[in-house]
Amino acid sequence: MKFLHLVWSNLRRKKLRTSLTLLSILVAFVLFGFLAAIKHALAGGVELAGADRLIVRHKVSIIQLLPESYKARMERIPGVVLATHQTWFGGIYQDPKNFFMQNPVVPEEFLAMHPEMILAPGQKKAWLETRTGAIVGRKTADRFHWKIGDRVPIQSTIWAKPDGSRAWEFDIVGIYDGKDKGTDTTPLFFRYDYFDEVRRQSWGKGQVGWYTIRVKDPAQAAEVAKRVDQEFENSAAETKTEPEGAFVQAWANQVGNIVMIVAAILGAVFFTILLVTGNTMAQAVRERTGELGVLKAIGFTNGQIVSLVLAEACLLTVLGGGLGLGLAWLVISRGDPTGGLLPMFFFPTRDLLIGLGISVLLGVVTGIIPAYQAMRLRVADALRRT
Amino acid sequence: MNIQGNDTLVSVDGVEKVFHRGAEEIHVLSNLQLRVPSGEFLALMGPSGSGKSTLLNLIGGLDRPTRGTVSVAGERLDQLSDHRLAAWRARHVGFVFQLYNLMPMLTAERNVELPLLLTHLSKAERSQHVKAVLAVVGLSHRATHYPRTLSGGEQQRVGIARGIVTDPTLLLCDEPTGDLDRKAGDEILNLLQGLNREHGKTIIMVTHDPHASARAARTVHLDKGQLSNEPVK
What we know:
The structure holds two protein chains of two kinds.
Chain A: H1 4-12, H2 15-43, H3 45-48, E1 53-58, E2 66-67, H4 70-75, E3 80-86, E4 91-92, E5 102-105, H5 107-113, E6 117-118, H6 121-129, E7 133-137, H7 138-144, E8 151-156, E9 167-178, E10 188-191, H8 192-198, E11 207-208, E12 210-215, H9 221-231, E13 239-243, H10 244-252, H11 258-286, H12 289-297, H13 302-332, H14 349-376, H15 379-384
Helix pairs in contact in A: 1-13, 2-11, 2-13, 11-13, 11-14, 13-14
Chain B: E1 8-21, E2 24-37, E3 41-45, H1 52-59, E4 67-72, E5 75-76, H2 82-92, E6 93-96, H3 108-113, H4 123-136, H5 152-164, E7 170-174, H6 182-199, E8 202-206, H7 210-213, E9 218-223, E10 226-228
Parallel strand pairs in B: 3-8, 3-9, 6-7, 7-8
Antiparallel strand pairs in B: 1-2, 1-4, 4-5, 9-10
């Protein structure tokens, strides 16, 4: 710590150069923060997916429906503990920009399948008692200032009523929270019995979007998935069963390989920053050769000189990185900038720590060559260059 | 020649220093002998390129002889590793440079404190030492000034304060008045003389100024890598 003022004074030497380098590092880390949040929003569900949950969908495509009768057959398959279904409703609330998911579900089964959604017992009871009842996640309730007792109109893009109208109305009977920060609390869920009864007879009646099943032993998930698909082989609606994580991944991959895209962008950004900061450090050390000679003359060891240069590089990158990550965190914590397309848009703590780690690593990498050069300076030669 | 003294602090025996410039060998010092007693103020004179600074660097442990031995207070400097030599310098030598060589981004007191950062002294103790030496060089009132706001003479006094703050065994001055006008130079020489006489500091001062060397107790002359008591003709 006693050397900190020495390290800091060196950074203050060329204020403009240091400021510009800091700014470049800051921008890089703001970008890092945003990309981390976007990556998590698009693919983060993969990590949060239940290890004991499988998704069963139509073999051809997720938009093909499956018979509701499959549920009973699934539950008879050895290794399956519970099966429940959801169907994509594709509704719009007031404006298409106000995107959030709404799905009809069977309440008790659904809540049993998703313990990560926390709903007060009284609200659960109200949902079971109200045919038009719906529960909505805290984020969406806050976003639209909905409260329990409100009746909300939603226009479905897919499902019509017998009179041809696509306007549905639901009574908000509960607002659920997530067990942790990663739980998506934007969807709205309403009762399947109400949905199936009211939707028009001509299409989709008695059919559902996909199933979620819980397996007894996660280690046997692959085996159970195979059994499920064998059960419906050669039927009119063959199935494709996969772990929930793989399902979410496939969903996210519709946008592209998010992880790879993010890694490629960040790789390019950090490589540029490596060059910018490396150049700054090389110049900073080169132009004070004489001063390094003086420090060596008065007794600073080679190890101490290396530490000083590395500390200077790390201070620069950690300062820039820290400010960048802080700024990213501030902006990201204001919420999803897309108006609902990225419901789990937040800066994960793990990525924040990774960012800090990268900033230290960046400092070490950019400082190591100048530090080595400073270490190799012969005192007498360095003093001649003053 | 062999200059002997009592209570020898610095011994230079049979020292040769050869520099290489491409394939060319430049012999700067040849079979050089020197003894400096403890408490002496020695002036080392000679024309440019005579090897004065090279000899000073060898005595200060900044460089190593090609052949021969350099001992200070019984320690063979030519046998110390780089790491131990650095530690030795921190404990035993204070340097004063012609161009002051202060850190421009540090205040006078922070510059003076630099060698103390290598000790185990607490912040308060370091501050106490710094104040004391700044008082010795008469710069207490300029402690928080940056080098660019100080005159040449003041900067050199800060340099001297930095050189003596750890109370080193030996103070090595390389042309300490070389960049100063006569008045400021005299002030510096008075200061060095005072440190020698009143505080018993052993000082070796490289200079080519007879006016400066006159302040030393003894003057030796270096020419073509050899020492003599007589000025170079």
